[in-house]
Design a protein that fits this description.
By secondary structure, the chain is an alpha+beta fold. The chain contains 16 helices and 24 strands.
């Protein structure tokens, strides 16, 4: 057995490759950003070829910088931005169109038509998801209907679909020369096409979107020794390494945070926020705007389900302050600026740039800054931006407690925004529960590594993984109950001001 596990983390803004030792400690990492393509308002795309090239580069550089080779890796795991849709030609590996990103809203007419026809209820019952622009199926339908020749290619068996996990896996295992076309249950559960009970593609759901089954990857457990083949390209590993784990990014973070028992939850703060609650082998259908999804499946063990609250814009709101508004020069400056004021000065910022995700699911919403007076300045805007991250997370926690009757005792957090100590203190204040950050903050990549290592026996079981988790810092609530209630009431009023702002096209 080799001494290390590798993990490809293909995210929304960048791709990284990380190497971990047996203690779950980071040994090496390399990361590269890729272009965010914005052809028109509401459209967000990535170049799949660029993503694959970045994947090659980060793997090569991480190994070189650590003086390791592919032969030092016992296995590789893959984790990825979910719902981002790639359709490509298996004969040559060329994408038919750019990847349509999970944030993209061009399919709002498709989602609205499903809801009006009553098929939305069928999707909720079978797939655990509302019809929304967020998920993959509408994006596949859009490509089939709007890109010349793709419908005909799909009917002839010359078009494959995958989220970016499948795209990276297919290329790593040979591409046109025998690449493996597969995914795992977590990614499949984000498409609106998989039946949560059968864990297979559902013919009725495929019919709703006009998608040929032949386009779809095989569905496998998240951790499996044989399912995903071997990385056998000459670049970047120069060795045959088994790929034994695949997980969508938020499911991987759940594993990396060792949330293996029902009632345990984590919140990942990245481009958006994603709060996942483990519900065990029980499939709980949300009645309060959450998603029912697969948490993970290890080998032949029963699938573990979860409730998830997905929030579209959190960390990217800080990027907006930096890149579009020029209020700050670096993301870290948001904390420095916000600390110069004691509160938001009555200002609330609801960053509904792509509508509102959980628990509202309102594609007609748009961002709004409300409560302004001459007193307010850039510091209040920075503070309101950090508070928007925390209030959106409280919206999800409230819905989660209503669905599951589970009251959080502590919230485990990870992701880039957790480096902002003020934001994490505000999160504890807004929720009224402690917030805990682990020593290893890169829990998404770590979770993919854990899935791969469990399949090979590199790690014995989940009990062993629990022993690796250590707390780095904890924030305790400091606000009074009155301040907490008043602040949240103001947030709810601000959210109401964002609704019915755009007209959703009829489909």
């Amino acid at each position: 057995m080799a001494d290390f596990i590798g993990a490809v983390d293909q995210g929304t803004t960048s791709t990284r490759f990380m190497i971990f030792d047996h203690g779950g400690n980071e040994v090496a990492k390399h990361q590269l950003e890729h272009e965010q393509i914005l052809p028109r308002s509401g459209w967000v795309e990535h170049d799949p070829v660029e993503i694959w090239e970045r994947t090659n580069s980060v793997m090569q550089n991480a190994l070189r910088h650590s003086s390791l080779s592919g032969g030092d890796l016992d296995a590789i795991g893959i984790t990825n931005q979910r719902e981002t849709t790639v359709v490509w030609d298996p004969r040559n590996g060329r994408p038919y169109y750019n990847a349509i990103v999970w944030q993209d809203t061009r399919t709002d007419a498709i989602a609205a038509a499903l809801e009006r026809s009553g098929r939305g209820d069928v999707i909720r019952q079978k797939a655990g998801l509302p019809p929304a622009t967020y998920f993959s199926a509408g994006k596949i339908q859009w490509i089939l209907e709007n890109v010349d020749g793709v419908r005909e290619a799909a009917e002839a068996g010359h078009a494959l679909f995958g989220n970016t996990d499948s795209w990276v896996l297919w290329n790593l295992t040979g591409g046109p020369d025998g690449g493996i076309h597969a995914t795992d249950v977590t990614n499949a559960s984000r498409t609106m096409l998989m039946n949560l009970e059968t864990l297979d593609w559902d013919d009725e759901l495929l019919g709703f979107f006009g998608i040929p089954r032949s386009m779809l990857p095989s569905i496998n457990p998240s951790s499996h020794r044989e399912a995903y083949g071997t990385a056998r390209t000459s670049r970047p590993l120069r060795a045959s390494v088994p790929i034994c784990g695949v997980l969508g990014d938020q499911h991987a973070a759940t594993v990396g945070q060792v949330c293996f028992s029902p009632g345990e939850a984590k919140n990942t703060y990245g481009t958006g926020n994603f709060l996942v609650l483990n519900t065990g082998t029980e499939l709980i259908r949300s009645e309060h705007g959450l998603l029912t999804t697969v948490a993970y499946q290890f080998g032949d063990s029963p699938v573990v389900y979860a409730l998830e609250g997905s929030i579209a814009v959190t960390g990217s709101a800080v990027q907006w302050l930096r890149d579009q508004m020029k209020v700050i020069k670096t993301a870290a400056e948001s904390e420095e600026l916000a600390r110069t004021v004691e509160d938001n000065g009555g200002m609330y910022f609801v960053p509904a740039f792509s509508g509102l995700f959980a628990p509202y699911w309102r594609s007609d919403a748009r961002g709004a800054i409300v409560g302004l007076s001459r007193y307010n300045d850039n510091a209040h805007l920075a503070r309101a931006t950090l508070e928007s991250i925390c209030y959106q997370s409280r919206d999800v926690v409230e819905a989660m407690e209503q669905d599951s009757s589970v009251h959080l005792d502590v919230l485990r957090v990870d992701g880039g925004v957790t480096a902002n100590d003020l934001c994490m203190q505000i999160q504890a204040d807004v929720l009224g529960v402690p917030v805990s950050r682990p020593v290893v903050a890169e829990t998404t990549a770590l979770g993919a590594a854990y899935a791969a290592g469990l399949a090979t026996g590199f790690w014995r079981d989940t009990d062993e993984l629990r022993t690796h988790w250590q707390e780095s810092r904890r924030w305790e609530p400091q606000w009074s109950e009155d301040r907490r209630a008043e602040g949240y009431a103001g947030w709810k009023t601000a959210v109401e001001r964002t609704l019915d702002w755009v007209k959703v096209p009829e489909g």
